[in-house]
Each structure stands twice: as C-alpha cells, then as structure tokens.
Design a protein that fits this description.
With 311 residues, the protein is of the alpha/beta class. It contains twelve helices and eight strands. It has one domain: Alpha-Beta Barrel (TIM Barrel), CATH 3.20.20.220. Helix 6 links the parallel strand 4 and strand 5. Helix 3 packs parallel to helix 12, helix 6 runs parallel beside helix 7 and helix 11 packs across helix 12. The protein is globular, with a radius of gyration of 19 Å.
C-alpha cells in the first residue's frame, strides 16, 4: 500500500459497495448489530460468523446508543466489523447526543477508519435508558446534519471551512411508514432528500401494507427504500411491541396468526417476515433485518426464503 494512503493522503474517490449496489438497482440485505455494553466483541462476532456461513449479507447496521444505553461506539463497532469480516457497515449516527462540532469530528474519524456509509436519525431520548438524567445535545435536525455531510462530500465542513480532502459518505435517512401524521412524515422525508440523503431505512413493519400505501402517496419513493423487518418470536413478543414500543404496530391479523400457530410460533414469525418482504420486493431496494433478542439464526432463515434470490 502506498504510504500516502496509510497517512490519509489517498486522493482517489472510492464508493462503497452499498453505494454501487444501490446505484445499479441490486437488491441488498443489511442486518442490525447492537454493539456490546462492554468492549469485548467476541460473542457478537461469533454469532455474525455463523450468520455469514449460512447467507450473504451486504452490510451490517451498527446502532448508536440504542435505547439510550451506553455501549461500544458505533464508529468502533463499524471499523471492527469491516476489518474482521471484510464487509460493508452502515454506521448509525444519532443527532441527539452530540453537538455539531462533535458530530463532524466523529464523522471525520469514522471516514479515516474506512467507514463511509452513515444513517442519520434523531436517537432515543435519555429518559428511556440507563441514565435518565443524561442531557440531550441536539444542535441540528436530521436534515440539517445530512446537509452538513453533503457539504463534507464536497470538501467543506462547518462554517464553510475547507477540508483537506472531501469525504465520500453514502447517506441514509429514516422514515416511519406508520406515522400518525403521514403528511408531516413525508414533509420531513422531502427535507432529508433535498439535503442530500441517498437512501432510506424504514422503521420496522410486519406486513407490506404500509409500504404499498406510502409508495402510492409518494408515487414511488424518491430514493431507494431499504425496508425494516423484525422477525416476531411469539404472540407475547408481538403484543409487547404493539402496546409498549413507540412506532411499532402489529395488525390483529398477524397477532392472530402467532396466537394460533401450530408448533413453534417463531417459525410463523419468520414466514410473516418473508411474506412482507416478498410482497414488497417490487417497491423496495433491500431488506434491513433486525434480530430480536440477537437471534441471528432467525435472520438467516428470513433471508434464505426471499423470492428475489430465487434466480
């Protein structure tokens, strides 16, 4: 390797694998990974190794202070995953926990470590986490932060100060396909797209109806949508998500299917997840799979049953 590359002097612009696949229209699969509460990653990496031996995964989504819990940083987890498995990562960046100076510094550090896919979102309120007295430090909205990252890709940082080299981030934004006020949600999406977002990650859904309804409202999503899917484990699991987790809605029909499932209800949950993705495959650009209770084996089952790979 050239010494200039090692020292950050590489002038070549290299797009991520995810960026290339999104541009080409290739269906992608991503899987969410929670960094551990400590600094040891071996248990998580063993589960990921088992997953990759079963199915192909295009990228891993590294969460940023999920559920307002102090965990290993998303930057460190993304870099470790990329180095160990030679796979793309999509680093989640919450605007709630850092001022804008820290946000830009963290992104530059991530880019120097080879992390160049980011997903911008607000983040969970500290009140729901381990230390509810922690402060929120939002200097920017999601769309404002996306605009800043777009400027960094053009070689300009905060206040228009030039960077020594442009970044090459592929930028994702969030959408809730089941928002109470869908007009407001779509206005927010428009601001993010106008600011420079290049793909969308949705909050999890459990059937294709919300995707189809929003796609009809928007006359097609303006940028590629990667659909969030969480394989349900049981009727009790689904009921808890439906009543206790903001932004998640499980239909009565799905609740009934899980309640009346013969044998292992988690297998019915896998079938429900596969159906949702297969029914929406003509609308979406990929699947963003969230392993409930870190059960990556269920994620593997979902991916293996997707019709888009039956070629």
């Amino acid at each position: 390797m050239d010494s200039n590359e090692v020292l950050g002097g590489n002038s070549r612009v290299v797009k991520s694998t995810i960026a290339k696949k999104l541009e080409s229209g290739e269906f992608i699969t991503t899987v969410e990974v929670h960094p551990p509460r400590g600094h040891l990653v071996s248990k998580t990496f063993n589960s990921i190794k088992d997953l990759l031996e079963k199915v192909h995964v295009d990228a891993f989504n590294t969460t940023d202070i999920p559920l307002a819990q102090a965990r290993l940083s998303a930057t460190a987890m993304s870099s470790l995953l990329s180095s160990y498995f030679s796979v793309d990562t999509i680093m989640h960046v919450a605007t709630r926990y850092r001022n804008v100076l820290s946000l830009q510094s963290d992104l530059l550090g991530a880019h120097a470590l080879g992390v160049n896919n980011v997903f911008v979102f607000m983040g969970d309120p500290p009140s729901m986490g381990d230390y509810p007295g922690a402060s929120s430090l939002s200097d920017v909205t999601s769309s404002q932060f996306i605009s800043l990252i777009s400027d960094m890709n053009k070689g300009s940082g905060l206040g228009g100060v030039p960077l020594n080299q442009p970044t090459e981030f592929t930028i994702g934004c969030a959408i809730n396909l089941q928002a109470d006020d869908m007009d407001e949600e779509l206005e927010s999406l428009k601001r993010k797209v106008d600011a420079g977002a290049q793909f969308i990650l949705s909050q999890v859904v459990f059937d294709s109806d919300p995707v189809e309804k929003v796609a009809e409202l928007t006359k097609g999503f303006p940028i590629p949508l990667i659909l969030g899917i969480l394989p349900l484990r049981s009727y009790k699991h689904a009921s808890f998500l439906n009543t206790s987790v903001p932004g998640m809605s499980v239909s009565q029909g799905i609740l009934n299917r899980l309640n009346n499932a013969n044998g292992d209800p988690s297998m019915e949950g896998i079938r429900i997840a596969q159906e949702a993705l297969n029914n929406a495959v003509s609308i979406i650009a990929g699947a963003y799979l969230v392993p409930a209770f870190n059960r990556y084996d269920y994620v593997a089952e979902v991916i293996s049953g997707l019709s888009v790979f039956d070629q």
